[in-house]
Write a structure and sequence with these properties.
632 residues; alpha+beta; Methylamine Dehydrogenase, Chain H; Cytochrome Bc1 Complex, Chain D, domain 2; globular
Length: 632
């Protein structure tokens, strides 16, 4: 189920157990499935959820960033025994070492802080405030500056590496997240997980932001055309080859059944002196896809590239000499060619649930892979391309309903040929910033914006026309029919998936003041949101007040209305009232994503005042209204 369709699937019958044939709970690849404790409360089991990892400069320690437990686990790299667990902040996302290896930096994405760990004492020696939702972090080779990518503020903060004092901000791509230092230390390369703003129904545009480390300025933006979702980037040791893992969505054409071409291509973009002009190449092959590429590493001898594929639960191995030979002799484009990867992909290694970060030993003989939803680390022998051992992080022996639902959400196992999973469109359980032409409503009709699924509990009905009454209906047989085209969930798996979706909490709102107080602008905006009379003294009908449709704690009265925003390509009928949780993060807006900003909702797409009474407002008053909405 792709949860973009929480607001975009047709009505289906309420699920009954009879709908679900006796289909066994799926094991991932060849591993035995962990038993599910059906009686365990879904919110009490303490998982580690390893997300990223790296080795100390001398190769004796393995640092594992554990997102759910909010800690760094330090392992002996030879025995894999735990040396220490170091508590950090909420929802840690990025980790890096200083060039001398004396300090470990961890970004805490829900705290907006950076933890500084002394690797000698293995203690947190400083906690510094940074930007909104910090993700990636690197220190320059001189130890003078730290660079931190902030996912919500879409920028890279430049800090004094010794004091944490911020010097400046550099504009990155939307959802700036991952940073990589070039081998010579002269450049920092930043990627971003959401596409940059672009005209409605045009190909998404992303970039690699290139920063001069010494001067702390942006010196280049490498365009990534038709790419949305850009993750880790790696360089060869000689600096001549750069590789970035990414998604290539096919959202501009009708999303037909997956057997007619799918919804995403899973690709790498190559750049640098070895390739010249950047080249995008697919990792997929016919009947086998590399869903949700995330982590990437290049062997020290530049013989192979390793890519974690979170939805496919595997590591894809690329032969670099064969890859370069292929790209030099085949001009492309390559993205749609499912025969291309046979020329350079040499292995697909099954690992654990949702593999994410990875790192190579210094001699390149071992590849460590963090299996986020297994609480394990796969150790791959790169000479045989086999998992030599599996490091189990201490945690629950059973799999809770919540963890099983999360595994289902991130897996591409259910879709035809394993192409996509829920998390392909809802990156890190959020959204993808794209609009889609979905098949059930008719080709070329009812273009739909992908909505944020945080805090979606108790905001039913779903689908933009309000046709689906609850999450089990949304995620059930009709999703499988139109999108998976493969197999059905059994009833317990669907239940667990529903539990996970309903458990998703909103990330902290960065526009709220402590104690939920309002700034003067937010106070004025709140008054406009709740007003019953316009500026000319005319009463505003109750159904045309912002506060009527967007009432309640989540900003929706869970009803449908005609607010005058439908286009000629839309089918008739009212639109569901979207909830307002973290609305500031989720551009584009309206049911079809035609409004690029909140302001455009009322300045471009509300000429008749059907979507609230706003034509009497000045520019400053609209700004106040938007400031209030950002607090929701």
């Amino acid at each position: 189920m792709s949860l973009r369709y929480l607001k975009s699937m047709p009505t289906v019958l309420t699920l009954t157990s009879a709908v679900f044939a006796c289909i066994a709970l799926w094991p991932a690849m060849d591993r035995p499935a962990r038993a599910i404790d059906r009686n365990a409360a879904y919110d009490v089991l303490d998982y580690a959820s390893p997300l990223e990892l790296l080795l100390s400069p001398d190769g004796t320690r393995l640092y594992v960033l554990c997102q759910e437990s909010g800690e760094v686990r330090v392992l002996d790299a030879a025995t894999y025994d735990v040396i220490k667990k170091i508590a950090v902040g909420r929802m840690p996302r990025g980790i890096s070492l200083s060039p001398d290896g004396h300090r470990l930096f961890v970004t805490n994405s829900w705290d907006d802080t950076l933890s500084v760990i002394d690797t000698g004492s293995l203690t947190v020696v400083a906690t510094w405030p940074v930007g909104a939702e910090p993700s990636g972090v690197v220190e320059d080779p001189t130890g003078k500056r730290l660079f931190v990518a902030n996912r919500i503020s879409n920028d890279i903060a430049v800090l004094d590496a010794q004091t944490g004092v911020e010097e400046k901000r550099l504009l990155g791509g939307r959802g700036a997240s991952y940073l990589t230092l070039s081998p010579d230390g002269r450049r920092i390369y930043a990627t971003h997980v959401y596409p940059n703003p672009s005209p409605h129904r045009t190909a998404p545009e992303s970039e690699i932001t290139v920063i001069d480390a010494e001067r702390a300025i942006v010196v280049d933006r490498i365009p990534l055309h038709a790419v949305a979702g850009v993750f880790h980037l790696a360089f060869s040791t000689d600096g001549r080859l750069g590789v970035v893992a990414e998604y290539h969505p096919k959202n501009l054409v009708p999303l037909a059944h997956l057997e007619h071409g799918g919804a995403f291509a899973d690709t790498l973009t190559l750049f640098g002196a070895d390739v010249g002009k950047p080249v995008e190449i697919p990792l997929d092959e016919l009947e086998r896809y590399a869903a949700q590429p995330f982590g990437v590493a290049i062997a020290p001898d530049k013989s192979h590239i390793y890519v974690t594929c979170g939805g496919s639960e595997m590591v894809t191995v690329v032969d670099v000499p064969r890859l370069l030979r292929y790209t030099h002799t085949h001009p492309g484009p390559h993205v749609q060619d499912l025969s291309a990867s046979a020329n350079y992909v040499t292995a697909r290694i099954a690992v654990g649930h949702n593999p994410r970060g990875l790192t190579l030993s210094h001699d390149g003989r071992k590849l460590f892979v963090a299996n986020r939803l297994d609480d394990t680390i796969s150790v791959i022998d790169t000479r045989t391309n086999r998992v030599a051992s599996t490091i189990a992080l201490a945690g629950p022996k059973t799999r809770s309903k919540l963890r099983h639902g999360e595994q289902t959400f991130y897996s591409a196992h259910y879709s035809f040929q394993g192409q996509i999973g829920c998390a392909t469109c809802h990156i890190d359980s959020t959204f993808d910033g794209l609009t889609w032409d979905l098949e059930p409503d008719g080709f070329g009709r009812d273009i739909v914006d992908n909505r944020l699924i945080e805090d979606v509990k108790d905001t039913e009905p779903f689908k933009w026309n309000g046709g689906n009454p609850n999450i089990p209906t949304e995620c059930g047989p009709r999703t499988e029919k139109y999108f998976w085209r493969s197999e059905n969930y059994d009833n317990l798996t669907l239940t667990d998936l529903t539990v996970y979706i309903r458990s998703l909490l909103p990330r902290p709102n960065r526009w709220r003041l402590p104690g939920y107080q309002f700034t003067p602008a937010q106070e004025r905006g709140k008054a406009l949101f709740e007003r019953a009379v316009d500026k000319f003294g005319k009463p505003i009908p109750e159904t045309n007040r912002c506060s009527f449709c967007h009432s309640g704690p989540k900003g929706t009265n869970q009803k449908s209305f005609d607010v005058g925003t439908k286009k000629t390509t839309d089918n008739p009928g009212p639109l569901d009232t979207a909830h307002l949780t973290n609305i500031a993060l989720t551009a584009p807006y309206l049911h079809d994503g035609s409004a690029r900003t909140l302001e455009e909702i009322w300045t471009v797409f509300n000429p008749e005042d059907k979507h609230g009474r706003t034509n009497d407002l000045t520019k400053d008053e609209l700004n106040d209204l938007i400031e209030y909405l950002r607090t929701r």
